[in-house]
Design a protein that fits this description.
two-stranded antiparallel sheet; mainly alpha; 2 strands
Amino acid sequence: MAIPPDDLAHLLRRTEFVARPERLAELAASERAAVVDDILSVDAAASTPANLTAYSADGWEQYVAACDWWIDQMVTRPRPFLEKMVLFWHGHFVSAWWDVDHGFHLMRQLQTYRAQALGNMVTLTQAMAIEPAMLVYLSNADNVKLAPNENFARELMELFLLGANNGYTQTDVQAVARAWTGHNARWQEDPSISRTYAFNAAKHDYNVQSIFGLPNRPVGSGWNGPEVIDEILSGSRKLLAATYLTTKLWEYLAHPTPPAGVIDAIVAASGFADNHDIKNLVRVLLNRDEFYLPAAKQGLVRTPIEYFAALCYHARPMTADDLGLAWQAESTGQQIFQPPNVSGWRPNGYWLHTSGISGRANIARYAAWSLLQTGRPFDDETVISSKTTSAAVDYVANFFGLSLSTTTRDAIIATHQADRNSHSWWSWYTVGNLLLMVMMSPEMHTS
């Protein structure tokens, strides 16, 4: 049986940023499982342009170009779920542009996430741990046996793989920090040469005898950093890790309060604790009936970055560069490539604050002005003035791919009618205000 249209639109919004008309038409006759498989059949990872992965003397110019490029990938890729997952890993295995040695290291890190976003969890985590961006961001670049640094060890367990106080102790943090000593990054005097991972045997502590209460290893052949990741994901902590990571993905794709039992059911059905297959885990998650319940369909606020992607898609050919999103994004509370701290961004209520909504409104206002300037498709007087007030509202809502609730639609109709009564039916104020109201509707800010 074909997937219900409302379920299909919900699924596409959550996985591909927007429910594109061409994708709705393409998948309308397919069963749910086939639709999920199609979404997961992502194109090969896009290669990051060379100018974004090499040193630039103008760090700000490179940052702007990187922001524009990534938003463009979210908007233009035929199956953009890969970029949705890169955004997830960027907010999970966190590093920040202005905190690492060179910004381009972050672009290289994201390319690693892009290549492995739906692959093997162990492989992805091992690669993340020795990316220069991560080595610098969490101080493992300087972690040596004479002065062990706990930053990476603590976040590896607390935020990345297990969750706070979940299956480890402070003693384990200290032991894991020692296990990661010597896994550093080469310093380069020439700023144009990127830093690279380097294992320094002389600075590694070989005498970490036990972690997680496991039997002691002989002196001189103790735990090594990469072995800790294997132990967490494949050994004594594998079920804890699988449950924690599945919960994070559910919260990202569905909603922040998973129904009782659903996480354990997904972990069991996917075999994720043993096979570490991220794509299969997501496949099982997206096929769960609970993913299509009203609590899930109504349970997520679009992050600013997801809002930008939707805005740029519907307002094509307007781009992230046209809207100045690289520098305007900070006003929304989510600066591209710049999570606020190592715990990353929070969902839902985290975005509903006065300054963040004001930032979105400023961007929407500029987008409305740009749409009127470029003529897509509101510069012709007959587009709006030839329609009734309600038809004009529906026309603009449809332009942005929205199905407005009765409450929202009635409110916008009333305001638009008041604008028509006090201004000409065709004026930049009347039409621009209508565009702004639709772009700031609750439906535009929920995925």
